[in-house]
Amino acid sequence: MNKPLYSIRMRARRQGQHLSGAERLSSLEEVEQLAADMVQRALHHARGRAESIELTIEQISAAEVERRPLPDLHTWLVGDYRQGRLAAAEILRRAGVAQGVIDGALSQIAGGAAPGAQTMRGAMLVDADSGQRLEPDQARGVRVSRMDLTEQARQQLDSELNRLGLNNTHVREALVLAAKVLSAPEIVAELCWSDDPDYTAGYVASVAQGYVRFPHLKPLGEERGGRAFFVRTEGSSLEGLIDYLQNRPILFDRIGRLHSARHWETYP
Ligand code: AMP
Fold first, then answer.
1. Rounded Cα distance, 70 and 126, in Å
2. For ligand 1, atom 6, which residue shows the shortest CA distance?
3. Which of 9, 2, 54, 10 is nearest to 27 (CA)?
4. C-alpha to C-alpha distance for 188 and 28, rounded to whole angstroms
């Protein structure tokens, strides 16, 4: 229980661009295997083989680690990415993000939110009312790190995701990332779709509605993806929020409810 944990982060680059990243918390016994798995992932990425790989492994004292539950998971079936983006916008509106801000974030992710219309390495921080970009570096964005599942929660999640036919790395990792993002009080909602050209699904997450997946938020073959964290930071510090997202270690030790897929036309 009081054994230290290790934060493992991987960043891979190809042709001067960000290619892939991953972040886990691990026991001493698992560090080497997880590091090897991350290196393998970078060398066999859908967008090509990594040309440089950076691994950072840091010890964290067990006393620093907070424990929390995962959000509930919902899937709404949509016919294509256009319907998916309309549905995602509706969920974001209900979470309290202004319509113009939603439209702006969708088009920034679709067009590449980093300078030069590139995909960012991390997430944009977007003011939920004004749409202002708040992250200090618009190419890097904010990389959420130091979060993972306990072994017991991982087994429960695996079996529930298997039941739904959703047990893949994308869903497992994104659910844990979104759970950490939602644990910050300044966060209103998150919007994400992958930069992996073979993976078209994406999600919106908010505290009230949970983790809401759509099988299509972009067309197949599209390499641009990204994340937007919609925030309200009045009365709190932006630096504090960024530090929390990047550095606060959290283990998720309970899963939420995982709902079967429903058709968007039946959304209440
Ligand atoms: P992925 O779901 O891994 O394909 O990532 C999709 C996009 O989300 C990436 O292009 C990044 O812009 C962003 N992203 C990936 N990992 C993180 C992270 N740990 N924290 C914040 N943003 C991330």
1. 23
2. 194
3. 2
4. 35
Distance in angstroms between the alpha carbons of the first and the last residue of the chain:
44
Distance CA 131, CA 57 (A): 35
pTM: 0.96
Closest to 173 (Cα-Cα) out of 12, 41, 29, 32: 41
Nearest residue CA, atom 5 of ligand 1?
194
CB 208 within 8 A of CB 95: yes
Binding-site residues, ligand 1, Cβ < 6 A: 21, 23, 119-120, 122-123, 142-144, 174, 177, 192, 194-196, 225-227
Starting at the edge strand found earlier in the chain, the sheet holding 250-254 runs 66-69, 250-254, 147-149
For the segment 7-66, what is each residue's pLDDT rounded down to a tens digit?
Answer: 999 999 999 889 999 999 999 999 999 999 999 999 999 889 999 999 999 999 999 999
Q: Residues 147, 215, 90, 123: is their CA dihedral positive or negative?
A: positive
How many whole angstroms separate alpha carbon 145 and alpha carbon 189? 18
DSSP structural state of residue 12: E
Tokens 């904010």 sit on residue: 142
Rounded CA gap, 253 and 44, in Å? 30
Nearest atom, ligand 1, residue 119 CA: 10
89, 100 Cβ separation under 8 angstroms: no
Residue nearest to atom 10 of ligand 1 (CA): 226
Q: Give the strand pairing for 210-214 and 202-206.
A: antiparallel
